[in-house]
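This part of the workshop introduces the protein records we will be handling. Getting from the letters to the tokens is the skill we practise here. The record below serves as our worked example for the rest of this section.

…
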Amino acid sequence: MSEIAKTPEPPYYAVIFSSHRTEGDNGYGEMADRMVELAASQPGFLGIESVRENLGITVSYWESLESITNWKKNAEHREAQRLGHQKWYSSFRVRVARVEREYGI
């Protein structure tokens, strides 16, 4: 994923997922692709940006806190979270922030 998300005028919300992976793929790549596809179909989803070197950072953008809560409750997403805890991540943090201002070229 190398595109900068095209987001609307603020305010909106960002979910920032920072992680360190375990060794090997172990099905991670396929599940990560599926989660992007599934998130994009959720009401309130605005876009996503993701990079990975040693530290992975994925930022997803959402219209509201309610849309974020509904995404967190999605059954397929919950299974991906379970697998992440079990085998894909050695550490991670999730942060939710309200975007108040945006600018760029």
Helices lie at 28-40, 65-73, 75-88.
